[in-house]
Amino acid sequence: MKLGVIADDFTGASDIALMLSEAGMQTAQFVGVPSSTEASGSGTNCDAGVISLKSRTEPAVDAIRQSLAASDWLLSQGCEQIVFKVCSTFDSTDEGNIGPVTQALAERLGEQTVLVCPAFPENGRTVYQGHLFVGETLLNESGMQNHPLTPMRDPDIRRVLSRQTTWPVSHIAHRTVRQGAESIGDAINAKTGSMAILDAITDEDLIAIGKAAAGRRLVTGGSGIAIGLPANFGITPHQHSWTGIGGKAVVLSGSCSTATRGQVSHYRQKAPSREIMVEDVIGGWVSIDELVEWTISQDEPPLLFSSADPETVSQVQQRFGRDKSASAIENLFYDLAAALVGAGVERIVVAGGETSGAVVSGIKASTFEIGPRIAPGVPALSVAGQPLALALKSGNFGGPNFFEDALHVLRAGS
Ligand SMILES: Nc1ncnc2c1ncn2[C@@H]1O[C@H](COP(=O)(O)OP(=O)(O)OP(=O)(O)O)[C@@H](O)[C@H]1O
Ligand SMILES: O=C(O)[C@@H](O)C(=O)CO
User: Fold this and answer.
1) pTM above 0.90, yes or no
2) What are the TM regions of this chain, as residue ranges (predicted)?
C-alpha cells in the first residue's frame, strides 16, 4: 500500500476511494481499522487503503484516538503518505474535529506543515480567499448552516480551523496556486510550522496542489485533494472491473440536506415510501420486523426515510435534544439494515454520512471493493465476501434522480 486515507465518515471514504480508483489506484475501503484476520485478506494487496471512521461528530479525544490507530495501521502496511479526508463543506464544530485530528496526526507523523484544502470543484465546492463556497453561495448560506449536527455558520475556513487547533493557520492564495506546483512548494516552505489553507477553484489547481504535496507525510482535505496524488506514485488512470448485483433493493435516507430532501420527494412519486419519525422511534412505536416485512413485500425498491426540513429537525431537537434525536434515528437504521440483509436484501442505497456509518456497522461489513461512479463523489461498492452492493451518498451529492440511478448502477455494474 502506498497511499493511506483516514476518512472521518463513511460517505466521505467512498467519495475519496472513487477519486483514487478512477485515477488508477487499486483501492480498498475498510470499515474501521482492519483486524489482523481482515488484514491478511486480499484487501490489503492494493495501492491505496481508505479507512472509514465515524469520527466527524465524536468527542475530539475519541476522534484522535481512532485516527492515530488508523494512521499506525496504514503506516504498517507501507503507506508513504496519509490523507485525512474531511468533508468538502468542512463539517465540524468549534471543538473539532478537523483541527485536533490534523494536529495529532502531524505530530505523530513528524510533519511540520500541513496542506489543508476541502475544495471539490466538480461538486461545486471551491475555496477562494480562504472562504468556502458551495456553488455560487458562501458555505454559511448554502443550507449547511442548518445541518443537524455540524451547522456551518462561518465561511472563512481559516477562522474555523483556527478555533480548533493550537497551531497557527496560514493561507496560500489562489494567485500562488495558479502559478503551479513550484510556487505552491515555495509558499509551503515559507509557512513552515502551520496548517496552510490553500485556495482552489478548479481541478487544475488541485492537480498542482497534489504535485506540490509529493513526499509530504500528511495532507488534509476533501476528496479533491487526492486528484493529483496518484501521479506522484507513477500511477495513471484506468478502469477496474466490477460486477453488479440484481437482488432485492431498498433506499434508506437519514440525511436532512437540501439535495437529499429533493431526491426523497422525487423518488416518493415513483416508489413506495415510509417516513420514520423521531418521536415514534423514541416512543418505541416503530417495529423493525414490521418495516422489514413491508419492505420485502414491495415490487419496486421502497424508500424508508427520516429526512426532514430544518424547522422539523429543530423542533425535534428542542424536544428531545440533538444527540438523542440523532442516535435514535441512527440506531434505528443500524437495526433495520441488519434485519434487511438478514431477510435477503442485496442492494442498499443510503443517503447521509452518519446514516451510512450506522447502516454499514449494522450489516457488519468490513471491506468494500470500489465500483463505477454513480454520481460525482459516489461510487457503487460491493461488500467483500457477501452478495451485497451499496451506494453511500453524501448528504449534498447527486442530482434529483440519484436514487434510481444508484439502484440501476448497483444492478448493472460497469
Ligand atoms: N427527522 C430528524 N430529526 C432530527 N435529526 C435527524 C432526523 N433525521 C435524521 N436525523 C439525524 O441527522 C443526521 C444526518 O446526518 P447524515 O450525516 O446522515 O446526513 P448529512 O449530514 O446530510 O450527510 P453528509 O454527512 O454525508 O453530508 C443523522 O445523525 C441523523 O440521525
Ligand atoms: O466531502 C464531501 O462532501 C463528502 O465526501 C462528505 O464527506 C460528506 O459527508
Assistant:
1) yes
2) none
In the chain, the domains with their CATH numbers are 3-232 (3.40.50.10840), 249-412 (3.40.980.20)
User: Which cell goes with 162?
Assistant: 483556527
The pLDDT value recorded for residue 42 is 54
Nearest CA to ligand 2 atom 4: 12
Low-confidence residues in the chain, pLDDT < 50: none
Closest ligand, as measured to the CA of 18: 2
pLDDT, residue 39, reads 59
Q: What is the DSSP string of 325-363?
A: HHHHHHHHHHHHHHHHHHTT--EEEEESHHHHHHHHHHT
Span from the CA of 378 to the centroid of ligand 2 (angstroms): 10
pLDDT at 238: 78
> What is the 296 CA–ligand 2 centroid distance (Å)?
31
Which is the closest atom of ligand 2 to the Cα of 222? 1
User: How confident is the model at residue 45, as a pLDDT?
Assistant: 81
Three-state DSSP at 229 gives helix
Residue 11 Cβ inside 6 Å of ligand 2? The answer reads yes
Nearest CA to ligand 2 atom 3: 88
Among 414, 355, 60, 376, residue whose Cα is nearest residue 222? 376
Residue 348 and residue 411 in contact, taking contact as beta carbons nearer than 8 Å: no
